[in-house]
Design brief:
- The chain is mainly alpha-helical.
- The chain has 4 domains: 36-287, Lysozyme (Orthogonal Bundle); 298-381, no CATH class; 389-439, LysM domain (Membrane-bound Lytic Murein Transglycosylase D, Chain A), CATH 3.10.350.10; 465-511, LysM domain (Membrane-bound Lytic Murein Transglycosylase D, Chain A), CATH 3.10.350.
- It has 23 helices and 8 strands.
- It has helices at residues 2-19, 36-51, 54-61, 76-79, 94-105, 116-128, 130-153, 163-168, 188-193, 208-226, 229-238, 240-249, 256-259, 265-268, 270-282, 312-319, 323-329, 352-387, 400-407, 411-417, 452-462, 476-483, 487-493; strands at 301-306, 309-311, 337-339, 346-351, 389-393, 430-434, 466-469, 506-509.
- Strands 1-4 form a two-stranded antiparallel ribbon. The protein has a two-stranded antiparallel sheet with strand order 2-3.
- 31% of the residues are buried.
């Protein structure tokens, strides 16, 4: 009996905490006056926010490059049903937040509550990071229809779609420091348990549909174990083992708020963040928040099955599909190569008009890809035969000395061939190495008359800096491939802090 009373008190505690703070007569969107106790509560909630990975994911979502073919029509005047001024940030009393969240809780089996920690995350989404929240609102039109389809199929609450916002801010290529990947942030081991494969060319955790289905299966499995959605969310974030230990330390009480003090810092903010983002997505207009246009939506695309090995660049050349579209909708192909076979075809999503052309020209595309590969191999063979050289990409832990020993050359030769003044090298750096231990004196019959002066001119030319103007559909990857360098090279040469480019941007290209 005492245990039943204890559980009841723990469940009512968040409401009791807020009842002491709520002023029922204040319902307007004004600045909230806080007494010392409420300031302490808010500061406590802010600490939970700072310890979570939510802000890290919100920062990453700003770098997503979306397509330019617009289908979502956003008219701020239509969406702004409360007549807010542009840039106005409404702030509400606790009683308003509590009432709205109770309204949402009434329509779901997920026990949504309100307390100081939830309030701090509402402040994060609705006030501190408004631009990123608008970006997520726009991206919700891309992914939520698919999420709802799978959640319905597995008989799960539709509100769980907001979990992906906490996990990745709806960034399909999001990655955490711990190694979790994708919209639903699966670790490699957990993903493998639910059929998400990882290879050198493909990472299924970046496949929106495959990872969404795996997430539904995992959530369903966790609910069958705990039969409590908050415990399920905590286990999804930190693992069942961590939650089980917290339950034991809390005296065996299976209640999220009871085990809250015994959970890792990140997990303590996980459920409050989920409640807050659920609230903000449903009451965005009340906070003068509107979707930022995400570009092309899922319903403007279609999926084709690829039954041969083919690269994004070859599909781009054959069909004219913008490279940015291929990359945005197919982030699972980490090297932009689809290793399809007749026995195991791979899916590829693209705008519908190109998908139709793919089905009509499929065999021709495969033939073109095969010819392109053979031509490239012939070119590489000829270059190797003439120059006797190849390129070594520096790996972690390597030095000039270890590379020289590997290829039986001297450090002095490596420095000379690559115009290095010091022995310092960095990961990803490309080093030219000659198999014979020295460059061949004559490249062809046309160069037999070359003199020291022409050689000097050639060296000057090879070390010069080129300028590339970014064209529509280009990315760092396509440009680096064109000039035989790496993405890191381009970022270093041009002091780029992200992969985002814009049409007309000038990039320095060095040898």
């Amino acid at each position: 009996m005492k245990r039943t009373y204890l559980l009841l008190l723990l469940m009512l505690f968040p409401f009791a905490q807020l009842l002491a703070q709520v002023n029922p007569e204040t319902q307007s969107a004004d600045t909230v006056e806080l007494d010392d106790q409420r300031i302490n509560d808010l500061n406590s909630g802010r600490a939970v926010v700072e310890e979570s990975t939510v802000m890290e994911m919100l920062d990453l979502v700003s770098s997503i490059t979306t397509t330019k073919d617009v289908y979502l029509d956003i008219d701020r005047d239509v969406w702004n049903k409360y007549g807010f001024k542009e840039g106005e940030v409404p702030v509400y009393d606790d009683s308003v937040y509590m009432q709205r969240i109770q309204t949402l809780a009434y329509e779901t089996t997920v026990p949504l509550t309100y307390n100081a920690h939830v309030k701090s995350f509402i402040d994060l989404y609705a006030n501190r990071r408004r631009q990123q929240t608008s970006r997520m609102l726009g991206l919700s039109y891309v992914y939520f229809p698919m999420f709802e389809e799978y959640l319905t199929r597995y008989n799960l609450p539709l509100e769980l779609k907001y979990l992906a916002m906490v996990e990745s801010a709806l960034n399909p290529t999001a990655g955490s420091k711990a190694g979790a990947k994708g919209l639903w942030q699966f670790m490699r081991g957990t993903g493998a348990e639910y059929g998400l494969r990882v290879s050198s060319l493909v990472d299924d955790r970046f496949d929106p549909e495959k990872e969404t289905e795996a997430a539904c299966q995992y959530l369903q499995s966790l609910y069958s174990r705990y039969e409590d959605w908050f415990l399920v969310l905590a286990a999804y974030n930190s693992g069942p083992g961590t939650v089980n230990k917290a339950i034991i330390r809390a005296g065996g009480v299976k209640n999220y708020w009871a085990i809250w003090p015994y959970l890792p810092a990140e997990t303590r903010g996980y459920v409050p963040a989920f409640i807050a983002v659920t609230y903000v997505m449903n009451y965005a207009a009340e906070h003068n928040l509107y979707p930022m246009n995400p570009g092309l939506l899922m319903h403007g695309t279609d999926t084709v099955m690829v039954r041969n090995r083919v690269g994004f660049d070859q599909i781009n050349e054959c069909l004219g599909v913008p490279m940015v579209d291929l990359e945005f909708f197919n982030p699972q192909y980490t090297k932009r190569i689809i290793p399809g076979t007749q026995e195991y075809p791979y899916s590829l999503r693209m705008p519908t008009k190109y998908a139709l052309r793919f089905t009509q020209l499929e065999d021709s595309i495969y033939s073109y890809a095969s010819r392109s590969q053979k031509v490239q191999e012939v070119i590489e063979e000829k270059v190797e035969a003439v120059s006797d050289s190849f390129v070594h990409v520096v790996k972690k832990g390597e030095s000039l000395g270890s590379i020289a020993r590997k290829y039986h050359v001297t450090v002095a030769s490596l420095k000379k061939w690559n115009h290095l003044k010091r022995e310092t090298i960095h990961v990803g750096q490309r080093l030219t190495i000659y198999r014979s231990g020295a460059p061949m004196a004559q490249v062809s019959s046309k160069t037999t008359k070359s003199s020291s002066s022409s050689s000097k001119a050639t060296n000057t030319k090879s070390s010069s800096v080129k300028t590339h103007t970014v064209k529509k559909g280009e990315s760092l990857s396509t440009i680096s491939k064109k000039y035989g360098c790496t993405n890191n090279d381009l970022r270093k040469w041009n002091n780029l802090k992200s992969n985002t480019l814009h049409v007309g941007q000038k990039l320095k290209i060095k040898k």
